[in-house]
Structures are given as structure tokens and as C-alpha cells.
Amino acid sequence: MEELCNLANTGSNTILYTVLAGSLLIIASVLLIYLKTNKHYRYRGGSFSFLLLAGFALMLVLAPTVAYAQSVDPNCLPNASQASQNGGSGNNGQAAITCPENWVVVPGNEAYDTTDFCLMKYNAKNSGGTVTGSDDIHGDGSFLSNTYSGGTAVSTPTSQPWANISQTDAITASQTAEPGSHLITENEWMTIAHNILTQPANWCDPDGSNCGAAPGASGKVLSAGHTDSTPNMPLEASTDDAQACFGTVTANVNTACGADPSTQKRTLTLSNGEVIWDLVGNVGHWTSGTETQGNLPSNSGNGGPFEYNTDTGFGLDVPDDWGTLAYTNPAIHNPAAASWGAANGVGFLGSDFSSGSPTVLAFGRGGSWADGPLSGAFSLFLGLAPSDSSPFVGFRAAL
User: Fold this and answer.
1) 266: nearest Cα among 323, 228, 299
2) pLDDT band at 16 (very low <50, low <70, confident <90, very high)
3) Whole-prediction pTM
4) Rounded distance, CA 292 to CA 356, Å?
């Protein structure tokens, strides 16, 4: 399959060129047939046979092989430079898409039935709404009681993340961001999580420095953003993606990750080179997923937070004892991650399991500024109803 992936990663143009080459050879063969019938031309049968067979081989064997490699393995993805040449598209053969300002292109993943889509680059913020409380991004923490009435969801590095909003209201608010936009779905979230998991740029020292290691390398963690309550509030983002630890370093004094032990890298890089701020940390994220309490993951009949690799049946393609929730483990499509957990920055699962309960709970992803090692790209918190709100949970829209 590696050879097929290498072939597939040359892009959809490979198929086009292969078909064209085969067509030209077949045309040449037909021309030789014509010349053979002309008495002034002395035809060599071997030349005709060779060209005809070569043409059909290119048309009927190599081109389908390339197409098969691209379709059968979702991990046959282009590298960042190829994706850039495709206008940010991560799916070979798919037309490049254009996203609004301060949104990023996310490469699709066939394993989650996603094609390339647009995502807010930053936590959703409220524009134009009426706030009850104090919009206190830099002050004493009174932002914890902020609630909004009305307004439009926007993706911008400045201002307070729009939290204290229920999943139900986040679904509605996401639709105000752009025509056709929606609250990010579970499959879209997992598409992003699996993508960033395999990018060396996201594997760093715990202080956010010395990035670029092989995924899962000893001593490295998958960057989990602002999660240490220092400072004890969500942060604004920088307009400069190079300032990945912005807000956790001393402003105008230190700008680099690693300037002191408490720095934390708040950016994650996709395979196409796009950068997302605060996907993990700062505030958690509602996705559109829900599940009944009686179908939630459980470890020996108990809820609470636990590692992904605690239960040998956890999160695999065949459900264990929690109904439809069968795609939370990072090892499903990245087998090397089978033993990774909180120590690697992947995250935890928090489950409010109750046997037989029909209560519906909403999916919360990522983790907030105060969740510490419970945060991670694969973290999943299942304890709030769709109508509940929390100052620790926000959202972002997809398109």
C-alpha cells in the first residue's frame, strides 16, 4: 500500500496524464494500421502490437490503480506543499475551496465521510449582541458570568470567546456566521483531530518549544493549548501565527514558546499548512453530537474520566456497550496511537454514564483553560445536556 500511496500522492493529474498517454499510444497504433494498408508503407507487426498493448495497459491498469490507492486509504494524503498547490485542498482530485477571512481549509477524511471544509480559525466570538455581565478579557474574571442575547458569531483573534452558551443555542449561533455555516459536527472534529495527530509540527516539549518531532516521540506531547489556569481565564489570540504561545508569555518581553516553564503552545497545524488557534484549551467546544446517558462509555460500569486505552473494546469500529459512540479512540485510524493517552497530550474521556438512563447528553470537545491534562484533541466530555451552558465551553462553526 505504501507504493500505491506514493503513486496516489502525485495527485489526480497522474490519472489524467496516464489516460492521455494511453490514448496517444492507441491513436498511434490506429495510424500504423492505416499505414499498413498503404502499399507504399512496409508495416512491422511487432511495433503495432507493442504500442497497442502499452496503450491499453496504461488505460486499463495503471489509471485504475492510482484511483484505487486514492480511494481505499484515507491516510494517502498529500504533503503540505502539494496541498498548497491545490489551493489548500487536502483531497486529491477535489476542487480547491475558498474560505472566508479568518477561516481555514480542513482536508477531508473518507474514514469520517468528510470532504474538504472550512472552519473558524479562532474560537467563535459574539459581534453585536447584548452582553449581561462584564466583557472582562483582561480583568478579574467576571467574564465567567457573561451571557449574550443576539449577535453574530465571528472568527477573530480579539475579544472574549463566546461561552456560557448551550449546545442548542450554539447550533443556532453557528448559522449566523456565514451563509450555510453550522456547528462543527463530530465527524468534522474527528477529521481535524486525526489530521493534527500525524503532523510533527504539533509534537513539542510541554512548554511548546522544540516542535517537529515524530508523533508519539518520547518526551513530546501533542500541543494542548492554554490549559493550566495561568492566567485563570481564556485568552485572546495573536494575529501572528508565529506567536504560538501568545498570552502565556510576557507580552512585549518574551514572545517565543519556552521563555518560561509555563508557556503553552496554542496553535495546531494541519497537513495543508493551515493553522488553527485554541482548538484545544482556552474554552471547550460543543460539537453537534449527542448520546443517551445509558449508552455512554463506561469502565467496568463506572463513569468519570479515564484513559482511552483502559478498555480493550473502547472506541473501536465495533461498539462495546455504549451504542453508537464508536469513534473516539485515536487508534482507530492511526494504529500507532493505541497506547497514547494523557501523558502524550491526546486527552481523556469524561463520561457521566448511568445504566439504562434515557437522558440525552451533548458532546463537549477539547478542554478549557482550567482542564489541565484532561484536555486534548481527542478529549470528550459527556456530562451536560444540550440545554446546559457553561463558562468553560464555547464553540466554532464549520462551512
Assistant:
1) 228
2) very low
3) 0.74
4) 9
